[in-house]
From TrEMBL:
It comes from Candidatus Fonsibacter lacus. It comes from the Bacteria. This is Carbohydrate ABC transporter substrate-binding protein. The keyword Glycosyltransferase does not apply. Residues 1-24 form the signal peptide. Keywords: Signal. Pfam families: SBP_bac_1.
Length: 119
């Protein structure tokens, strides 16, 4: 149970982080924004969990839609690599496999897309 709680906190933090991106990405004119998330499935209930979390986020942030793709843990790395290769890069990924890509400078740092006051 503690493990699931830790992951739940991480998921909430990820959506909170998404808020930072959304605030930075939304122009002064009210344009609709869709955040694309790829999240790992740790339990059978993760789809329902992320659906509820996304709905709560969307209700609190009109004009921002959250599109969550919940992927089984063993397949998430390949799924994200395929999305990136096909030009469909997600905005947020719940995965730790991309240290190599980060080291190669292929990923944005948070300070490159969100102003310092938001961080």
């Amino acid at each position: 149970m503690k493990k699931f709680r830790t992951r739940k906190i991480a998921a909430v933090a990820a959506l909170g982080f998404a808020t930072s991106f959304a605030v930075a990405a939304v122009p002064s004119q009210a344009a609709d924004v869709t955040l694309k998330l790829v999240m790992a499935s740790y339990t059978d209930d993760m789809v329902n969990y992320y659906d509820g979390l996304s709905q709560d986020f969307e209700n609190a942030n009109p004009g921002i839609k959250v599109d969550v793709d919940v992927v089984a843990w063993p397949e998430i790395g390949q799924k994200v690599k395929t999305l990136i290769a096909s030009g469909q890069t997600p905005d947020i990924v719940n995965n730790d496999e991309f240290a190599g890509e980060a080291a190669a400078g292929l990923l944005y740092r948070a300070d490159q897309i969100v102003d310092a006051a938001t961080l």
